Amino acid sequence: MNETLIKGQRIHNWQMANYWLFYYALFLFAFFNHKLFAQVQPMYFTYNRDLGEVFLIAVGLPKWLIAHPHWYVFLDIAVLVFPVLVMARFYWKDRFSIVLGVLFTGFLWSYFLLQSCLLHTSLQPYVPYVLLSCLFWFNSEANFKLVVRVARLVLIYVLASAAIWKIGRGAAFETSEMSNILLVQHANYLTGNCTEWICRLHFFLIEHTVLAQCLYVAAIVLELSFVVGFFTKKYDRLLLGLLLTFVFFDQLVMRIPYYAILVAWMTLWDDSEAVEE
Questions:
Q1: pTM for the whole thing?
Q2: What's the N-to-C CA distance of the chain in angstroms?
Q3: Which residues of 182-211 are buried (b: 16+ CB within 10 A; e: fewer)?
Q4: For residues 206 and 26, what is the distance between their CA atoms, to the nearest angstrom?
Q5: What would the pLDDT profile of 88-147 be if each residue is shown by its tens digit?
Q6: What are phi and psi of 115, to 5 degrees?
Q7: Which residues make Cβ contacts (< 8 Å) with residue 202, sequence separation at least 6?
Q8: Is 52 exposed, middle or buried (0-12, 13-18, 19+ CB in 10 A)?
Q9: Most buried among 28, 36, 51, 141, by the most CB within 10 A?
């Protein structure tokens, strides 16, 4: 095996290790935050205008699960055990099974869709997990690279399109937009005894609408910056820094745990292009 192939294999191993590290960290945090299916009761479902959710609701799966809650445990166990089967097959045969890989991707996407229906979570941070799970369909370097490239473009689209949507509906030009969002987002604890610094910060931003709106516009500019990624990979490391900044302030200001999307950081730090064919 020549040096180029060895380097390519190391990069692929690094990408897979990165994926599984984030994957199990995601569900570990979900366990500690009581966000696994088996930990949430009572359960009811909502429709979030997603075509995948329309399909699940049409076949009656959310309703069936609510009527048979013991299957929640099966879902949680399966999402943890399925990767073990995928990797066990790889180490046994020294190659991935496309059938097992496709089944894993389909199950994972269904799991996240059900989370959106039943646990009312946002799908966007979990899209990279589904896309990058396609790494375990293939055994060639070219296909590995293709999966990472597609995941990168989708990440860029998710962030850039969010900025374009905010601009298109006029939210960027409404001076009280951010203050109103904060008021709704934090209503559950702003009505209580606000003594913690984070609560006082939110109160301050709600009262100072211009400053809050400046933060909102800054977030739009940050998201819109990802458009450059459609044209060049030259600034990917800078975009990674912007992604980390966005996730940090989304948690601080909005209390939205968007950290799950960070599994896609490796698409912005992809060294596989340096490996010659």
A1: 0.85
A2: 13
A3: bbeebeeeeeeeeeeeeeeebeebbeebee
A4: 31
A5: 999 998 889 999 999 999 999 999 988 888 887 788 889 999 999 999 998 888 888 899
A6: -60, -40
A7: 182, 186, 190, 253
A8: middle
A9: 36
